[in-house]
Fold this protein.
Amino acid sequence: MQPVEVKKDIYWVGAVDWDIRDFHGYTTYQGSTYNSYLVKDQKIALFDGVKKGFELDLIHRVHNLGIKPGDIDYLVVNHLEPDHSGGLPELIERLKPEKVLCSPMGEKAMKAHYHYQGWPVEVVKSGDTLNLGSRTVHFLETRMLHWPDSMFSYLAEDKVLISSDAFGHHWATSERFDDQVDQNQLMQHCAKYYANILLLYSPLVQKLLAKVQEMGLQIDVICPDHGVIWRKDPMKIIQAYDRWSRQETVDKAVVAFGSMWHSTELMAKAVADGLIDQGMSVKLMNLADNHRSDVMTEVLDAKVLAIGSATLNNGMLPWVADFLQYMRGLKPTGRLAAAFGSYGWSGEAVKEITAKLEEMKLELVGEGLRWQYVPDHEALKLCRELGQKLGQAAKAG
Ligand code: FEO
């Protein structure tokens, strides 16, 4: 329960959740952290709380800095989602901050979540500052990144950006900094976070990155509310956000499918073969075995999406519909797509998938490929040709 110094008089005092495996429908196979930061100056400020159940982790770390109840002047709440605010009632009760600061939308969300009375809440807006003595906190509202209340806190003298969910990732580690962990794993966790939490807000991410550049913010360290702190290379994650929010893709295809008796699976393999013929990297993902959030992570940089389903009860398989509904909400754009599937007698699945892909405004290649019952050599040749056509279109684009 020791605090970790980030910079002089700036400490990580959050909690590591080694056990969480599901974050509202997003798999967190390797846990998460709820980061909280304490700044000691003439005034003492605590930035962000923890999830309900982790309050004592934070309180012990704060205690180990020699800080007693009543010593904290400001509790800044950058974001009200319960993974950061669930512990607020107990923190406010036990730490007794003089003021609780949040954005205008944060105040609304705080009232709607906690129905409090008597909390010393004060609203701050973009451009407002908070003097701590030798340093000043600058607030920047980041509405819809990813909640209406979301806000950044920037410590100008230290060049430290406390970025709320942005630039974070779900990964429980004993290490606290980017230079202490495996870089490939780190970026994979960040990609998963972006694909599943932020992709739909990409136009706003672009605007925010432009605004940060326009403001000329010097950033030495990024302190996100989840995962490790970016002290060695904060530009690495900023550049990744720039790429992801532009929805940049590579020569990669996701072939995601649902099958009943392996016929659609055979078709999926043949579509994948055709894509490989064209030099595409392929992820073949059975939607019965791969979680939607893992498939979405692969979609993040894939140029091609080929979606297959058998027909069940006059429609696509429910687990294919689940994934399409999820992906639709996250708004991937600028991809090529196609539908395929085996059927017995009615065969509506391909039509339904095609309609969903059209609704998502993805560029369809081909008419949608259906085959009755088990695909034969001719059917698999057609599937392979569909894959080749997708690969050629991707290369041409
Ligand atoms: Fe980590 Fe939007 O909460």
In short: The mean pLDDT is 97. The chain has twelve helices and 24 strands. The CA atoms of residues 4 and 386 lie 54 Å apart.
